[in-house]
Structure formats: C-alpha cells, structure tokens
Amino acid sequence: MIHNMPIRNCWCRVCCRCEYCGALPQTPRFNLRNEDEIMIEVQSVAKSFVLHNQGSAVFPVMEGAALSVAAGECVALVGASGAGKSTLMRMIYGNYTAQAGRIVVGDVDVASAAPREILELRRKTLGYVSQFLRVVPRVPTLDVVAEPLRAIGIDQDTAQATARSLLTRLNIPERLWALSPTTFSGGEQQRVNIARGFAHQYPAMLLDEPTASLDATNRAVVLDLILAAKARGAAIVGILHDEDARAAVCDREVDVSVFAPGAAA
Amino acid sequence: MTPLLQVKGLSKFYGHRIGCADVAFDLYPGEVMGIVGESGSGKSTLLNCLAGHQPPDQGQVMFDTRADGMRDTVTMSEPERRMLGRTDWAFVHQHAHDGLRMNVSAGGNVGERLMAVGARHYGDIRGAAIDWLGRVEIAEDRIDDRPRQFSGGMQQRLQIARNLVTGPRLVFMDEPTGGLDVSVQACLLDLLRGLVREMGLSAIIVTHDLAVVRLLADRLMVMKDGYVVEPGLTDQVLDDPQHAYTQLLVSSVLQV
Description:
The complex is a heterodimer of chains A (265) and B (256). By secondary structure, chain A is α/β, with parallel strands linked by helices. Chain A is built from 7 helices and 9 strands, in the order E-E-E-H-E-E-H-E-H-H-H-E-H-E-H-E. In chain A, the strands form 2 sheets. A 5-stranded parallel β-sheet of chain A has the order 6-7-8-3-9, sandwiched between helices. Chain A has a 4-stranded antiparallel β-sheet with strand order 2-1-4-5, with helices on one face. In chain A, 43% of the residues are buried. With 256 residues, chain B is of the alpha/beta class. Chain B has 10 helices and 10 strands. Chain B has helices at residues 43-50, 78-86, 96-99, 106-116, 122-135, 152-164, 182-199, 210-216, 234-239, 244-251, and strands at 5-14, 17-27, 32-36, 58-65, 69-72, 89-92, 170-174, 202-206, 219-224, 227-233. In chain B, strand 7, helix 7 (182-199) and strand 8 (202-206) form a beta-alpha-beta unit. In chain B, helix 4 packs parallel to helix 6 and helix 5 (122-135) packs across helix 6. The longest helix of chain B is centred in the C-terminal third of the chain and has 18 residues, at 182-199. The model of chain B has no long low-confidence stretch (mean pLDDT 90). The interface between A and B is medium-sized, with 21 and 26 residues.
C-alpha cells in the first residue's frame, strides 16, 4: 500500500498521518505533540447501507476511513455532495452504525460501545450541532438552549444565565426567548441550535454546516464561538461549505472522497 | 453502576401462540427505553410481564430493590410484588380510567397511593396532592372534582400525578399519549421529560408513535411477532435502521 503522508513541518503523530490509513510518519521526529491529546480517532471504518425493502440493495459508501483530531484542533471534512461527509460525522456521533473499524472519542469506542456509554459520552464529552433543530413542541427557546446544561446537573439559574448570554450573542431578540423555536425562521432555528450546541463546553464537537443560511454578522459570531472552543482545547470536526469560514477556523482539511470504496486502493 | 432492571430470556405464550419470546435487556437508573412495533407485536404483553400484571412463562425480571438489592420479581411473593407496585414502580395506563378511581376526587386519587405506603396525616396528604396537581398543571380548585369531570388530557395528567407522588424509581407507560390531541400530547411529553430529569426516573414506554419515542426515549427496542428484532440507541435505530422490519416501519411514517 502506498501511503499519502502530508508534507508538514511539525511531524507530529496527530496531523501527519497517512491520509488513507492513518499510519504514523516514518520519522523519529514525530513526538512534538503528545498522543494523549488525540480526542477523536477514526481507524479503518467501513460503512454500507442495506435497503431490505428495495430488493436488499447494498450500497457500500465508505471503506478504510481514517481521521484523528487533537484537542484544540479543527478539522474540516471536504468532498462533493454525497461523498460521505455527513455519514462519517454521524458515525462519530453514534447516530449511524459502523460495520468495521474503531471510532474512539475520549476513551469510548463509539463503534462498539453500549447505548448507555454513548449517551453518557454525548451528555458530557461529545457535542453535535446538526443542520436541523429537533425539539419537544411548546418548550420555550430559553429552556431548549439550557437543556444540555440541565442534563449534566447544572442548576436552573446558572443554565439559564448561560443560555441568555448565548442567545444575546447570536442576536436572537429577547422577546422570542419565551416562545418555542418551532415557529422561528430557518436562520433563527439554526442559531438556537448553535446556542444549544455551545451551551456546554464539550471537549469534542461535531459541526454540520453551522454557518449555512446565516448572514455575515451571525456567521462571524459562530466563527468566534468555534475559535473560542478551540482555544479552550476542544477537538472539532466540521462540515463547512463556505471556504472563507474554513480558512478562518480550520487547521486542515480531510477529503472524504478518498474513503469511497475502491478509491483508496 | 448496577442496572435497575435486568431482564433475561423473558417469554410468554398464549397456548401455542407467542406473546413475547426471549426478551433480554438491562435498564440503568435515569434511562428511558421505548418499545415500538405494530399492534400484536407483543409490546403490551412484554410490559405487563415486566410490571407483574401477567406471569411470564420463562425468564427473569431482576429489579434492584431498595432493601435487598437484586431480586427476581417473577418468583417474588404476591404481597412483595404488590408492595413494589405501589412504591418503587408506577404504571401509567393508556386509558386513564384503568389507572384512576373515577368516583373518587382528584385529591383522593393522588392521596390513595400515599396512604397505601403509610401516610395518615390528612393535611400532609392534601398538601402533597395539591403540590402534584400543580406539577401536572391541574388547577388547585379542581382538587375536589372527580376525574369524570376532567377532559381526557387532564385525566391522563392526573394519572401521572397519582403514579409519581410516591417517588417511584421505575415507571411503566402504555401509550401514555395515545388518543390525546397533539397539543395536549406536546404538553405531556414536556412534563414527562422534566420529571424524568428532575427525579432521575427510569421509564419503559410502549408506543407505536415514533415521534414520541424520538423525543422521550434514550433507547429503543423494535418488536415484531413477539421478538425484539432491533435494539439500540433511539436516534441510531430510527436514522440507520438495520433490520428489514425497522426499515419498513421508519419509511412508513407519514411526513407532516
């Protein structure tokens, strides 16, 4: 197998692995960064979809996927639409099952963990800002945003104070806070979703197009939130279609189309 | 952490027909598990076997009792099982009139469970009843009305108050939002989520409404013909279903 080693100066074992298989650099100078700092590690992950009700059609979508993200680092997943960016991200979150390989977040292997361990991981360690807001109808926006904090046992007042400051920062007018976000516009819903995703300071975060459908002001706020999360040491995997946004927050890009079955050979 | 409920090889047969077969799972404190499947798939049979309403033919239902640790509730004596039923367990029926005394006042319905565990002070009992009616958003001045005079949604909320007043650790729910209109359903879902979080309840919810389990349950078991065909994380089972039947179930949901 031919390795594809990125040419960088750091020679660390975090970002200088083979882009295909995650093999370590073949040089002794690779310990500038400590391996302990790796927060998200994906190794030789494979995925296929089987549609039982449509003639049991099998669609292999990913093979040999590898990725590692260190604390304080932001990695962008790139590739054409349908290349598997969201699929890989959902596998890291445990939302999709992986057929093979390891997906280690913190000290939990999501690919083989029990539901209980994944739930615990999602509560404390791994945040996910999806493209869609999914909430119980009629729950006020303020409570929706405070919920991740309430779930880890933070008291109502502190949780709501954090929620208030995030909603203010994301320019959601205060008169909307007592309403359910289900009636909001697309951009407002997305900002509520982002506020909720950033309420708890997760050590690892997955962001699925956090800046899509936002105006320039709000986009800048979201990028600031991402930079602040990096600064406190969060490992971030993002899907960002906006090149300027990528340049502003991401340390490197991983092209997921090389994980397509047959492409990596 | 030890599981609150540990079920092993649970089976129930109706003659030569299968009610539910070979069901096994662990439920941990604070977890909410949904059971979905079409009618006749064995969901209610399973729930009734777990809650001690029907004797299973095979298997164990181990519950972490406060006094003696893990005990098999299937082989427990009837009085012990009934004691569990009014202290650590609660059962929310699909039809509120199965779980309420329709000719006793709302306050009396809530107070009865307290008296069953030894409360005797009238003022305390009434105080607790008022507190719980408030939590399920029933106005205090309705405390002396009978459930017959309540709307369907209020009856369901009263049933929940009656069940939770004794601070149970495990709640069984059979279609708790079935037959309610959607606005009441949303209210009830919010209420249940809040109670689960504040009281650290574990719950097992039987329903055929996938939207309800997505919002309420952490974990899901999909049943078909008495067997569990797919267990897993709720969002994973619904978004990436592996079994043919689950795929059919998920793809059959009407989009609003």
